[in-house]
């Protein structure tokens, strides 16, 4: 029975692992739903804000927000996860970074929102402008996104960087999340439409494009002035855009962690089932051996 006892011990250990992964799956499900609801609730506001952006585009596109900086460097904002156990979430984002680097060959500095990436950048001798990893939590607030957006806007407006690119994972649904390299600054109409298409979906995007196209000949008056609109409204819209990106990234993280924990739970339960079958066979073999010994002993006594 020694073999059966060892199998039974392993079954108990694997079932405990299944309980832990199930609990982690449930926690990630709740957190994913919270982040998803937060991102979804902002869609209507983001849609209206972007409509305003696109309507006044031709009147404001000569301001610094809409022009590349004079330096050759690019500022990369890296949004990943401080925690593991989320399958290929961080790996896929880094693959996107590497492919983008190979395509563009840009010289870059970093704003990091992930501890491990910050350590990697530091070890490879690259420059970290700012690291927000310690402040990045499941409870993403507009204050946090404002701190990040204020920094990158300041760096871009000072002319230190020709553009700002954000790397993150866009949440499509529970099964699908897409790594994205999003140009944050300078602002281009194509980038705004691409962002809209990804956030709103194909149908709503087509409706929006037709609506904006139908208003292309409208003339707008600005109060108090174009300069004040560009100074106050544009940073606010960029801040909300970054807030939405952070929520999308967090929903993607929890979604992939939920799927990973579900797979781990299912695998543990499947393995426990196989071991239970092996345990039953080993126990049956032991009982059969004991019965055979008893029968043999009885027969031997008869002969005596």
Provide a descriptive summary of the structure in words.
With 304 residues, this protein is of the alpha/beta class. It folds into two domains: 2-27 and 259-303, Orthogonal Bundle (Helix Hairpins), CATH 1.10.287.80; 43-256, Pyruvate Kinase, Chain: A, domain 1. It contains nine helices and five strands, in the order H-H-H-E-H-E-H-E-H-E-E-H-H-H. The protein has helices spanning 2-41, 43-55, 57-60, 89-104, 115-123, 142-157, 189-200, 202-214, 226-303, and strands at residues 74-79, 108-113, 128-131, 163-171, 177-185. It has a five-stranded mixed sheet, sandwiched between helices. A hairpin with a 5-residue loop joins strand 4 and strand 5 (177-185). Helix 7 crosses helix 8 (202-214). The two termini are 31 Å apart. The mean pLDDT is 81.
């Amino acid at each position: 029975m020694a073999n059966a006892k060892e199998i039974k011990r392993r079954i108990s250990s694997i079932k405990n692992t299944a309980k832990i992964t199930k609990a982690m799956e449930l926690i990630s499900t709740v957190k994913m739903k919270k982040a998803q609801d937060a991102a979804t609730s902002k869609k209507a506001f983001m849609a209206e804000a972007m409509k305003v952006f696109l309507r006044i585009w031709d009147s404001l596109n000569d301001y610094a927000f809409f022009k590349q900086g004079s330096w050759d460097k690019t500022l990369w904002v890296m949004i990943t996860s401080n925690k593991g156990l989320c399958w290929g979430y961080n790996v896929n984002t880094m693959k996107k970074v590497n492919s983008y680097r190979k395509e563009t060959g840009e010289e870059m500095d970093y704003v990091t929102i992930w501890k491990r990436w910050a350590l990697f950048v530091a070890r490879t001798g690259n420059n970290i402008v700012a690291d927000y990893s310690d402040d990045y939590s499941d409870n993403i607030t507009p204050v946090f996104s404002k701190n990040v957006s204020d920094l990158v806007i300041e760096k871009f407006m000072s002319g230190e960087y020709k553009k700002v690119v954000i790397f993150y994972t866009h949440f499509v649904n529970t099964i699908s999340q897409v790594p994205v390299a999003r140009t944050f600054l300078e602002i281009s109409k194509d980038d705004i439409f691409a962002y809209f298409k990804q956030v709103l979906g194909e149908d709503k995007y087509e409706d929006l494009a037709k609506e904006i196209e139908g208003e292309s000949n409208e003339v707008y008056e600005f109060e108090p002035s174009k300069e004040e609109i560009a100074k106050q409204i544009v940073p606010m819209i960029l801040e909300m855009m970054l807030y939405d990106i952070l929520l999308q990234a967090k929903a993607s993280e929890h979604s992939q962690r939920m799927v990973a924990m579900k797979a781990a739970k299912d695998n543990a339960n499947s393995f426990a089932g196989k071991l239970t079958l092996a345990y039953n066979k080993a126990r049956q073999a032991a009982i059969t051996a004991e019965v055979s010994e008893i029968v043999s002993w009885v027969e031997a006594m008869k002969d005596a």
